[in-house]
Specification:
Blueprint: H1 3-6, H2 57-60, H3 62-79, H4 83-103, H5 115-134, H6 145-155
Helix pairs in contact: 3-4, 4-5
Length: 156
């Protein structure tokens, strides 16, 4: 078989063989190949609007705006020289995103992947940021000896 016979030329569309007529007891087998051109992508589970379509755009995306607002406020607090309080707020905002993803059926653009993956990602990152900010020097609020040993082993 030559390349010309198997692939369409530039600008041409691939000709699909006609489907056999459907009748009682006839099974139509469709191709399992992926289409050459992707027309759209599936929305993630829970990726619908968080408010009715008649609501203004910010109201429809309130879960995402809440998380982004908390992260933005945390970054502003860090910039104003309150490192620990700002990073704790950033971590808590991500944990709130994980909670929204778990509790709400529709979260708008906060849904990026599957519900489980989003909850795992937001939750682990939020918990890690909160834990590390509470352990930051000087004068850590939380001391976990195992993690102190890991840090000392990797840094030295």
């Amino acid at each position: 078989m030559t390349a010309e016979a198997s692939e369409p030329a530039a600008g041409e569309q691939r000709q699909e063989p006609p489907a056999p007529p459907a009748g009682p007891g006839r099974f139509i087998r469709r191709s399992r190949r992926f289409p050459l051109i992707t027309r759209d992508t599936a929305r993630p589970e829970g990726g619908g609007r968080a408010a009715p379509g008649a609501a203004p755009a910010p109201a429809r995306q309130w879960p995402l705006l809440t998380v982004m607002g908390g992260v933005g406020l945390g970054l502003l607090i860090v910039a104003l020289d309150a490192f620990r309080a700002g990073t704790v707020l950033i971590g808590l905002s991500l944990l709130a995103g994980a909670f929204f993803r778990w509790a709400l059926p529709e979260v708008g653009m906060l849904a990026v992947r599957s519900r489980f993956t989003d909850m795992l990602t937001y939750g682990l990152l939020g918990a890690a940021i909160v834990l590390l900010s509470l352990m930051a020097q000087p004068d850590p609020w939380v001391s976990i000896p195992f993690l102190d040993d890991v840090v000392h082993f990797t840094v030295r």
